Automatic annotation (TrEMBL):
This is 4-hydroxythreonine-4-phosphate dehydrogenase. Binds 1 divalent metal cation per subunit. Can use ions such as Zn(2+), Mg(2+) or Co(2+). The lineage of its organism: Bacteria, Pseudomonadati, Pseudomonadota, Alphaproteobacteria, Rhodobacterales. Its EC number is 1.1.1.262. Its main location: cytoplasm.
């Protein structure tokens, strides 16, 4: 195969991951990708399964599976602690393949953090932090993207009462710089426009609803505007309607829900999780394991399909 395939990790076998991967294979017959996992977990999912021994054997029609030791059957809705170590090591193996050049990008199916913690003492809040560690503890940001909106939360998986303490000038500047670089390299935008949300309601409203904007956020954004094309801080409640979105290429928000609520409202099924700042491409569907519908034929593959397409587009831009 002339084109390097995308490596896809199986994620939590008992969730909807195998189902949306199989559906994506049917929907994207011309996009080369292979899965790292147990081939038996994909049997009976209305897709031909091809066991391969190396990424270059990837098929364009069958679902190519590079076998990985994840023991036991797939039991929809019932995670098995004995599979946790294999799920985690499959991610590490995929990273090695991408970094070695055997795959063009990484697309990760959803994991269940509690199951991994219970079964393998997984010490990371999620994929994003684990991938950053595998890449050498690099600084990364999580971008959620769909055709209508791209958002980056400056702080991610922390409680709301910790945001004001952990959101520092260094944290926000790092998020802005990584976002700017990612928009240029991976999205082909030469001069990105980055809107910056305020932390407080109405961006503090002159200090009457919080003082972080006056004390340091405004000055930081102003200093970086000439270099990074950022502007703000803006009142978050007026940033996400259609006319406002037309004025920027990405929005950097201050905490998880401030970023994720608007994009999941605009495109709940089709959003893609992208990790910016890694030395390789990583995308993922923007949903979880969905144990409640696993195995029932109800899983929507739209986000997995979008994640694979975005990974392919990003890989093409980097190659060019």
């Amino acid at each position: 195969m002339a084109e390097r395939p995308i490596a896809v990790t199986c994620g939590e076998p008992s969730g909807v991951g195998p189902e949306v991967i199989a559906a994506a294979r049917r929907a994207l017959p011309d996009l080369p990708f292979f899965v790292i996992g147990n081939p038996q977990h994909f049997m009976g999912l209305e897709v031909d399964v091809q066991v391969i021994s190396a990424p270059e054997e990837t098929s364009g029609t069958a679902l190519s599976v590079l076998p990985h030791d994840i023991p036991g059957p797939r039991r929809p809705g019932l995670p098995d602690p004995a599979q946790a170590a294999g799920i985690v090591s499959a991610i590490a193996r995929a990273v090695e393949l991408v970094q070695d050049g055997a795959a063009s990008a990484l697309c990760t199916a959803p994991i269940h953090k509690k199951a991994l913690k219970d079964g393998a003492e997984f010490a990371y809040p999620g994929h994003t932090e684990y991938l950053a560690a595998l890449a050498g503890d690099v600084d990364v940001v999580m971008m959620l993207a769909c055709p209508e909106l791209r958002v980056v939360p400056a702080t991610i998986h922390i409680a709301l009462d910790r945001v004001a303490q952990e959101l520092t000038p260094d944290v926000l500047e790092t998020a802005l710089r990584i976002t700017h670089a990612g928009l240029r390299r991976d999205f082909g935008i030469d001069r990105p426009r980055i809107a910056v949300a305020g932390l407080n309601p109405h961006a503090g409203e002159g200090g009457t609803m919080g003082r972080q904007e006056q004390e340091w956020i405004d000055a930081l954004v102003t200093r970086l505007t000439p270099e990074l094309g950022c502007f703000g801080p803006l009142s978050a409640d007026t940033m996400f309607h259609a006319k406002a979105r037309a004025g920027y290429d990405a929005a950097v928000c201050m905490y998880h829900d401030q970023a994720l609520i608007p994009i999941k409202t605009i495109d709940f099924a089709g959003g893609v999780n992208v990790t910016l700042g890694l030395p390789f491409i990583r995308t993922s569907p923007d949903h979880g394991t969905a144990f409640d519908i696993a195995g029932k034929g109800l899983a929507d593959p739209t986000s997995m399909i979008a994640a694979l397409r975005m990974a392919a587009d990003m890989a093409a831009r980097r190659a060019a």
